[in-house]
Amino acid sequence: MVVEGKSHRTIEASSDLTRVTIIDQTALPFKFKLIELKSLKDVIQAIKFMKVRGAPLIGVTSAFGIALEMNNDPSNQSLMDAAFALKESRPTAVNLAWAVEKMLEHLKTINAKDRAKTAWFYANQLAEDDIKTNINIGRAGLPLLKQIKSSPLNILTHCNAGWLATIDNGTALSPIYQAVEEGIDIHVWVDETRPRNQGMNLTAWELTQAKIPHTIISDNTGGLLMQQNKVDCVIVGADRISIDGQVCNKIGTYLKALAAKAHDIPFYVAAPLSTVDKKFIGKNQPFEIECRDPNELLRIKGLNSNGIISEVKIGMSNAYNPAFDITPPEFISKIICEKGSYNPDSIGALLL
Ligand code: MRU
């Protein structure tokens, strides 16, 4: 993605394989700030404090975390400890555990002296694969957008499932980027996505960089817009998908799916197959829905009059802050992945 005339990825390894550069997403949209991660500890902090976030990106970042730790100590114990600590850093998006498992598969049988080099190779490969996968998600989603005949095509999205949530291109935004390249007139309704405002801070910033018309709306506005025929379809990403098509994604996704169903508006989920969890089926939900610090709800961040990013308190009571919810398959029109678009209940079959 191009930012200020320069092409960027959300994470890039240094040529001497000693560090990675990330975009500090907690500073957006106010500052475009690149920072270096030089150790496993830096990586874990960046994931926990959401300097990097989005399911595919935290997966690849954790792979680089293993590579950094292998520079430091390539022993079996260090490999297993790093894998454990990374998996604990954020519990809901399965891509993180998936990427860590991929790295373990590649590294377990390698001699300790060759581990660091091999780890960097595979972490870089996961990053490259993510980019190709997202381009294919875009290709698979494009026909679904083309079959809607409105102009402009009004698409509602929740949270950020754009290039900032991946290495490049994004998942939910990938078909939108491809449609715009083909000259389709698109306007995006961007849910602000309280409490961390990934829609307002990240999706709107991304769409601004790409010069795509968009409007930020409060999380409560989508229903009204649907009633007024101002939404042609909804596209969101996913953090974990069950093999029977339940979709765990940013809190508030479920409410948008309910409203879309009530108004007969297509509701699409775009995600790579690495987001499908073989162990998640029916009532068996083998993961924790991350519950984050209530202060994320009680405080709000912005730019003060001195141009400094700062927080103010906006609430004084107890707060409860689950970060994700689960949308059942009956509310989802199609799941778009790198292989095509599928009815939600058939997504599990693709893993066989
Ligand atoms: O808490 P976040 O910002 O990591 O949540 C991100 C989302 O919920 C995204 O919609 C999801 O990870 C899909 S990203 C391609």
CATH class identity of the largest domain: Alpha Beta
CATH superfamily membership of the largest domain:
Translation initiation factor eif-2b, domain 2
Order of helices and strands: EEEEEHHHHHEHEHEHEEEHEEHEEEEE
CATH topology of the largest domain: Rossmann fold
Looking across the biggest beta sheet, what order are the strands in? 8-7-6-9-12-17-18
The CATH architecture term of the largest domain is: 3-Layer(aba) Sandwich
Bound molecules: 5-S-methyl-1-O-phosphono-5-thio-D-ribulose
Distance linking N and C termini? 34 Å
Biggest beta-sheet profile: 7 strands, mixed
The unreliable regions are none
Mean of the pLDDT scores? 98
Describe the structure in brief.
This protein has helices spanning 40-48, 55-72, 76-89, 94-107, 112-146, 174-181, 198-209, 222-227, 253-262, 295-298, and strands at residues 2-3, 6-7, 11-13, 20-23, 34-37, 153-157, 186-191, 214-217, 233-236, 240-242, 247-250, 267-270, 276-277, 299-303, 309-313, 324-327, 334-337, 340-342. With 352 residues, it is α/β, with parallel strands linked by helices. It has two domains: 2-131, translation initiation factor eif-2b, domain 1 (Four Helix Bundle (Hemerythrin (Met), subunit A)), CATH 1.20.120; 140-351, 3-Layer(aba) Sandwich (Rossmann fold).
